[in-house]
Amino acid sequence: MNAMSGYDLWQFISQSVAHFWPLSKSQVYAELDRLQQRGLVVGTEVPQEKLPDKRTFELTPQGAEALQAWLAEPGFEPSRARVGFLVKLFFGHGMPPDALREMLQRVREEAEQQHAQLAGIVEILSASKASVFMRATALLGLRDAEATIAWLDEVTPELTR
Amino acid sequence: MNAMSGYDLWQFISQSVAHFWPLSKSQVYAELDRLQQRGLVVGTEVPQEKLPDKRTFELTPQGAEALQAWLAEPGFEPSRARVGFLVKLFFGHGMPPDALREMLQRVREEAEQQHAQLAGIVEILSASKASVFMRATALLGLRDAEATIAWLDEVTPELTR
DNA sequence: GCATCCATGTAATCTGTTACATGATTCC
DNA sequence: GGAATCATGTAACAGATTACATGGATGC
Predict the structure, then answer these.
(1) Tens digit of pLDDT for each residue in B41-69?
(2) Is the separation of the CB atoms in B72 and B66 below 8 Å?
(3) Labelling B38: which of B12, B68, B140, B149 has CA 20 to 30 A away?
(4) What pTM did the predictor assign?
C-alpha cells in the first residue's frame, strides 16, 4: 500500500475491483487529482531516466482517517447495471429467429468464459490464505455467471420456439 | 408505439427497460434530439392549454429501417455493472465487525425486496400472454436476486466469524 | 388552504470515454 | 528490423446526474 503512481493504481484496479466497478485510466488520474484537492492524498514528482517521469501518491493522515470513517459506515453506493443483451431481448419479438439464437449463443459463451475465469480466481484465493473478502467478491461473480447460464437453459427453448 | 413525448417515453422506460439500462429524464430528451439530428425520428410541437406544451416524436421510415437493421444483428452492447457493496466488501478486513454485519444485512434486504418485486412482475407477465421476451428479461433479474441471496447464505458465516 | 405530485422540459455541472503522444523494450 | 506492448500520462469530447422552473391538479 505504499506510494503508487496513477498508472500502478490503474493496473491494480484493472485486475481486481474493475470487475464490479470499472474505471478507466483517465478516471483514475482525475480521481487522484480530486483526492489531492481534498487533501486526502499527496503526490510527489519522481523523475525517471529510461521511462517517463511519474508522480506517486500516498495517503495523508486525513486520507487514512477518511478511509477508516468510510469503512466504519455500513452504507454503500447503490448498484447499477447496464445489460446490453437484455435491451435487445426486450424487443426480441422483432428479431429474426436466427439473429436471436445467435445472440443467446453469444451470451452463453460470454457467461461461460466469465465463469471459467472467475472459477480460477476463486480457487487461487481459496488456496492462498489471503483475503476471504476478495474471495467472496469473486465468488459472487461466479454465482452470477452460473445464474445466467441456468437462466439461458430455462428460457432459450421458449424464446427460440 | 405512436407518437410519444419525451416525458411519455421516459415514463415508459422507467418502468421497463430501466431495470437493466437506466436512463435519466434528461438523457431521454438528449437522445431524442440526437436521433432527430440523424433523421431517425421527427418531433412535432403540440400546444396544450392546461399543461405545458410538448413535442411528440415518431419514427421516420429511416428510423424504422435502422431499428430493423439493429434487430437483425445478433450483436449487443457489452454489459457493465457497478456493484457498490462489493467495493466496500473488497476492503472488508478493515471494517468493524458490526458495520460489516449491518452491511450484509442491508444487502440481503435489498435483494429480497428486488426478488419480491420481480416475482410479481414475472407472474403478471406469465399470466397475460403478452411478451415472452419481457418476461424473460424480468426473470433474469429474479434469478440474479436469488443468486445474491444464496451467495449471502454461503459467505456471511465465514465473513462475520 | 398548504404541500406535494404531475407533466412538461432546460441548464449547469460532473463523470466517463476515446484518442493522442512518446521513448524503451520485447516479440516474431 | 517492424510491430506490438509497456509505462507514463494529457486533452478533447461525449454521456449522465442534479438542480431548476412552472402552473394545474390532487391529497389531507
Answers:
(1) 999 999 998 899 999 999 999 999 999 99
(2) no
(3) B12
(4) 0.94
**Best CA proximity match to B17, nearest among B38, B31, B3:** B31
* 8-state DSSP, A41: E
d(CA A20, CA B160): 22
The closest alpha carbon to B136, from B154, B121, B115, belongs to B121
Q: What does DSSP assign to residue B56?
A: E
Q: Which residues pair with B41 in a beta bridge?
A: B59
Task: Decide: CB of B143 under 7 A of nucleic strand D.
Answer: no
Which helix (H) or strand (E) segment holds residue B5: the answer is: strand B4-5
Q: What's the CA B6/C1' D23 distance, rounded, in angstroms?
A: 19
Q: What percent of chain B has pLDDT over 70?
A: 99
Spacing of B155 CA from D6 C1' in Å: 38
pLDDT at A1: 60
Spell out which residues of chain B touch residue A86, defining contact as CB-CB under 8 Å.
20-21, 137, 140
pLDDT digits (tens, 9 = 90+) for B91-110: 999 999 999 999 999 999 99
Cell digits of residue B13: 422506460
Q: CA of A66 and C1' of C27: distance in angstroms?
A: 45
pLDDT band at B1 (very low <50, low <70, confident <90, very high): low
b/e code B101-125 from CB counts within 10 Å (16+ = b): eebbeebeebbeebbeebbebbeeb
Give the whole-angstrom CA distance, residue A17 versus residue B90.
8
Residue B144: list chain A partners with CB under 8 A: 144, 147
Distance between CA atoms of A116 and A138, rounded to whole angstroms?
12
CB of A48 within 7 Å of some strand D atom: yes
In the block, cell 421516459 appears at B10
How wide is the angle at C-alpha A33 spanned by C-alphas A30 and A39, nearest 5°?
A: 145
Contact B148 A140 (CB under 8 A): yes
